[in-house]
């Protein structure tokens, strides 16, 4: 029955005269409504795909080169498409800081809101390139490196520049409403480690892993905040984070962990589609409050329909016995720690990715220390 209810919700938002304009005002002093062209397009992104194969979201390094290029291209094409002002990528990004996001942070709906947001974004990507999915970035792969900023993740083949303005890779020289796209990796907070993930998975109900109830050690929102701040610049603030494509692969991993948590719940005889806390903190996180996205309610975020009908996750890469590469040419196994690690950029050659020996830690050739720019005082910070 919950699935039926949410099907109806998805159908409702397809009505041509559907109008969420009344709710769409900015949190900034401008208080402007969403552009009608954006509203029309946004409505078209609420749909359930036909029954059939689920989309498969893989770890970013597990994509084939063609899949990865398709993923990058779909995002670049959204950024170039100005049929929705200022462009489709930025319009979608704005949902994360307008009053469409009042229930997105600081409470149990953190997980459901971002799940819906990723599906909308993925639907938009697939308008540009058929069949692309959002990969997830397992940030524990970078965690524990002496210098995560030298990971292949920040090479031109993947997300590009780790420190300073992004001048390398598929999103080089992007502009955002919060200045040129930039990063400042590794100067504050931290990535997630395997103990963090074990701690989350040892918990039982959503209240154990979300605000306002969860202690820091098992609080998935707090742990995710640390990763945001660790990446720096746009990613470090709620209002600007979604303008960096890293946002979507980071959140896909958080969503992956939640789905693992839900699978654990089922194995323990609990129904994740009924697990919404009674104590929610902020009123915006009440189960019957608007999610801010279409006609969905907060409670719809815990529905099973997303991973029954839309997508599933491929497992995180692990060390493969009798092999060295964790199943990707961009990863290798550190057998001493039994963990997959990324290839590390070599300072002598931008394409020297085929290291097979021990992981070496050297400065990448494009590293620019101290090149970070700072932002003015924004209103929103990742706690
Ligand atoms: C912002 O928009 C809302 C909804 O339309 C309205 O109630 C409110 O008065 C507006 N605030 C300002 C400062 O214009
Ligand atoms: C996308 O996936 C569908 C369903 O699997 C398939 O029929 C179609 O050919 C694919 N399109 C491309 C361009 O790969
Ligand atoms: Cu967010």
From TrEMBL:
Keywords: Copper, Metal-binding, Signal
One Pfam family per UniProt: Tyrosinase
Signal peptide per UniProt: 1-22
Keyword NADP: no
Protein name: Tyrosinase
Cited InterPro entries: Di-copper_centre_dom_sf, Tyrosinase/Hemocyanin, Tyrosinase_Cu-bd
Record-annotated Tyrosinase copper-binding domain positions: 105-122, 244-255
GO molecular function terms attached to this record: metal ion binding; oxidoreductase activity
Entry keyword annotation includes Signal: yes
Domain of life the protein comes from: Eukaryota
Organism encoding this protein: Ruditapes philippinarum
């Amino acid at each position: 029955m919950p699935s039926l209810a949410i099907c109806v919700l998805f159908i409702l938002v397809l009505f041509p005269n559907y109008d969420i304009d009344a709710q769409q005002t900015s949190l900034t002093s401008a208080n402007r409504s969403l552009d009608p062209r954006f509203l029309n397009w946004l409505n078209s992104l609420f749909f359930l795909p036909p029954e059939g194969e689920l989309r498969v979201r893989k770890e970013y390094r597990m994509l084939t080169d063609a899949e990865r290029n398709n993923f990058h291209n779909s995002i670049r094409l959204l950024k170039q498409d100005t049929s929705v002002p200022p462009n489709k990528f930025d319009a979608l990004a704005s949902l994360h800081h307008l009053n469409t996001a009042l229930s997105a942070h600081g409470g149990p709906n953190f997980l459901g809101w971002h799940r819906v947001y990723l599906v909308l974004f993925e639907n938009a990507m697939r308008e540009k390139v058929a069949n692309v999915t959002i990969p997830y970035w397992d940030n524990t792969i970078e965690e524990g490196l002496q210098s995560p900023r030298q990971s292949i993740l920040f090479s031109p083949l993947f997300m590009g520049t780790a420190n300073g303005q992004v001048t390398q890779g598929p999103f080089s020289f992007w502009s955002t409403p919060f200045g040129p796209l930039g990063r400042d990796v590794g100067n504050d907070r931290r990535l997630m480690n395997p103990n963090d993930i074990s701690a989350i998975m040892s918990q039982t109900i959503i209240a154990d892993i979300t605000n306002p109830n969860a202690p820091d050690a098992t609080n998935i929102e707090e742990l995710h905040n640390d990763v945001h701040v660790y990446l720096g610049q746009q990613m470090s603030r709620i209002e600007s984070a979604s303008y960096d494509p890293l946002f979507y692969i980071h959140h896909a991993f958080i969503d992956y962990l939640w789905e693992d948590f839900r699978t654990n719940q089922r194995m323990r005889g609990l129904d994740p589609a009924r697990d919404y806390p009674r104590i929610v903190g902020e009123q915006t996180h009440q189960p019957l409050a608007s999610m801010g996205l279409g006609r969905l309610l907060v409670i719809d975020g815990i529905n099973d329909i997303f991973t029954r009908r839309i997508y599933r996750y491929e497992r995180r890469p692990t060390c493969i016995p009798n092999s060295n590469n964790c199943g990707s040419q961009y990863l290798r196994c550190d057998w001493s720690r039994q963990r997959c690690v990324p290839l590390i950029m070599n300072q002598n050659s931008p394409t020297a990715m085929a290291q097979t020996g021990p992981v070496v830690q050297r400065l990448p050739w494009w590293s620019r220390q101290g090149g970070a720019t700072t932002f003015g005082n924004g209103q929103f910070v990742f706690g």
